[in-house]
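input
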Amino acid sequence: MDASLLQRIDFLRLSINLGGNKKTIRQMLEMFLSSTAASLKRMEKAEAEANILVWLQVAHQLKGASKNITAKRLAVLCEEAEVIQEFPHPQSANVIYNMHKELALLRTAIEKHLRDLDPML
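output
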């Protein structure tokens, strides 16, 4: 696995935070992946509709979820999104683009980790 993928999430810290419970880790990571994709779609819609309140709400929620699973880079991108306070904004499309890229990398890292965590599940 590419070393940069291993740095996407601090799996050791996540395991410690969750008491090493493999089932809980799996559930949390799977829920994160499904909810994050939906969150990015909501942000795209908010940008298209110039709805800054939804944009900021979703960015904040996504930041919290990212921090919960120790996805530091995505949390930083959420902080960049929270800086945007009005639409149109020259950086909003770039932030969404980078979030999508990061989510794709996170998905790869998480799926690999889940296979390694318990290959029988």
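quick obs: Residues 3-115 form a domain with the Four Helix Bundle (Hemerythrin (Met), subunit A) fold (CATH 1.20.120.160).
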